[in-house]
Amino acid sequence: MIFYFDKISSTMDIAHILANKGYPHGTVIVAEEQTQGRGRFKRKWHSPKGGLWFSIIFRPENLKTIKAGFLGIIIGFSVLKTLESFLKDIKLNFKWPNDIEYEGKKVAGILLESVYEKELEYIIAGIGINLQVDPEEIKDLKAFSLKNYITIPDKNILLLEILKELEKNLDNFPNNWKAIFEFYKNKFPYIGKEAIIKNKNSKAKVIDITEDGGIVLSINKKIERYEWGGVSLEFE
Ligand code: BTN
């Protein structure tokens, strides 16, 4: 089921309300515009008209053995793969954990919010793509709009293609994991690079990405491992 809204606070808010009411795995909420779009680490996510802003409800009983780290990467993979099939001239890459970038500027971001009671009740994934956003609107945000590069005029077709790709990749897990992980690593140009850990205000060097979606960093010559999304990295 897909719910469309013109202008709302955030598709995450509506997704939580619907998940609490019992709406099933796979429910999708899309908005033309969000007034309080949010990103990882409580950052504001600028969501003007022209973007593709949506959230999906996931129920653990439908996720087999897929944990948040895998889910984030499978979503990122599905979004990047679908986008690239409609792009001319440019190639995208990942920035761990799940930003999709073009030349160091953000094209898309993914946010996962898990809700536990006694155990995991549901996960909401929020996906934001600067698809047909006016490039002027986001030029100060280290963000990049695909407006002049995307060959598909209809946002809704793209959404359906992403959902189809995602469903296929979730269904095939874990048989496809190795291939997805390899693809992800090949599209991650930051191994060996220096980074700033934004939420800790320290420097680090990226050593590797782990097979469960985590990252290995060297911080003051000490090796540390973080789970999917556990730190926020910025590269020069
Ligand atoms: C990030 O990179 O920090 C994640 C950004 C996620 C943005 C999307 S847009 C749709 C959904 N609704 C929100 O308020 N946030 C997510």
From TrEMBL:
Question: Any idea which UniProt keywords this protein has?
Answer: Ligase
Q: Tell me yes or no: is Ligase among this UniProt entry's keywords.
A: yes
A GO CC term attached to the entry: cytoplasm
EC number from the UniProt entry: 6.3.4.15
**Superkingdom of origin organism:** Bacteria
- Sequence ranges assigned to domain BPL/LPL catalytic in this UniProt record: 1-174
Q: Which PROSITE patterns match?
A: BPL_LPL_CATALYTIC (PS51733)
What InterPro entries does this protein map onto?
aa-tRNA-synth_II/BPL/LPL, Biotin_CoA_COase_ligase, BPL_LPL_catalytic
The residues forming the signal peptide are: none
Q: Which GO terms describe its molecular function?
A: biotin--[biotin carboxyl-carrier protein] ligase activity
What is the name attached to this protein's record?
A: Biotin-[acetyl-CoA-carboxylase] ligase
Look up and give the organism this protein is from: Dictyoglomus thermophilum (strain ATCC 35947 / DSM 3960 / H-6-12)
